[in-house]
Write a structure and sequence with these properties.
The chain has nine helices and eleven strands. With 277 residues, it is an alpha/beta fold. Strand 6 and strand 7 form a beta hairpin.
């Protein structure tokens, strides 16, 4: 999670005209569209979020934005905060926001906005919500990941310092996907991230347990990515994971993800490669 926190405290003055919270969001979106401080405008507006309103209210009580978010049910991929106290009127408020938070307001990373106002202070939170695939999407995502992996294998590439020739396409294995799911479930439940299972098992042991009789086997894992595109690209960009993807020794793969919004990572991915005997 990325957090940008800041505050401009103006000791004199009180609200002459108190803008409605919805109006603040509209005003910020106007700044976002128009651009500021030599930054170009952004066509996509920030969506009002009642859950982020709650985060802004919690943040107004003090402490860090991350802690405030942890006290609510809102989960973000990235977030930023803006605070102004003591602005004399609406124009003064917007001038302060434009002058001090232009980078945040025009950042396309952020999709939603929450606002809380108390006396002469206003707390604003913008965020990219953590949106994960559902269980019903698992089959489609597995097929998409397979397609991306095979597209990568279709071209010669370097994985770190090692050159790989193009490799034949993989096929999707239900058994390997089952082994992948078991490890993702284990990581999510126990909130850890490593190849060794909580019971000490290796990928070879886990694939054997689901009945896969293998000649060679390998595994990639990841935490955090919210789409097949992001997780596969992350593996391709990492030399060791890329080597697994490009290895001609493998003929099949399985992939699975598990979402646990209360865990630190939020989503856990496992990709298992194999060649049967």
């Amino acid at each position: 999670m990325r957090k940008l926190a800041g505050a401009l405290l103006l000791s004199c003055g009180a609200w002459i005209a108190t803008p409605a919270l919805a109006d603040i969001g509209d005003d910020l979106n106007q700044i976002r569209r128009s651009g500021c401080s030599n930054r170009p405008g952004v066509s996509q507006p920030l969506r009002a979020s009642k859950s982020l309103d709650t985060v802004a209210r919690e943040w107004s009580k003090g402490g860090r934005l991350r802690d405030a978010m942890g006290r609510t049910d809102y989960r973000a991929t990235n977030s930023a905060s803006m605070q102004v106290e003591g602005a004399s009127d609406r124009k003064a408020l917007l001038d302060v926001l434009k002058a001090n938070y232009c980078d945040t307001i025009t950042d396309t990373t952020y999709k939603e906005i929450g606002v809380y106002q108390k006396r002469d202070g206003i707390w604003i939170v913008v965020a990219a919500p953590f949106v994960t695939p559902g269980v019903k999407d698992a089959a489609q995502i597995s097929q998409r990941a397979l397609s991306l992996v095979n597209a990568a294998r279709a071209k010669a590439r370097k994985c770190g310092a090692t050159q790989f020739a193009a490799a034949p396409p993989l096929t999707l294995s239900a058994m390997l996907s089952r082994a992948a799911l078991i490890h993702s479930q284990d990581m999510a439940k126990k909130d850890f991230f490593e190849h060794k299972g909580s019971d000490g098992s290796t990928v070879g042991i886990r694939t054997a347990r689901v009945g896969y009789v293998w000649r060679t086997v390998g595994e990639n894992i990841a935490i955090g990515p919210q789409t097949a595109e992001v997780v596969v690209q992350g593996w391709i960009d990492s030399p060791g994971h890329c080597a697994n993807i490009m290895s001609p020794a493998f003929t099949e793969m399985g992939i699975a993800f598990v979402v646990d919004r209360k865990s630190e990572a939020g989503i856990y991915w496992t990709q298992v490669f194999g060649t049967p005997r």
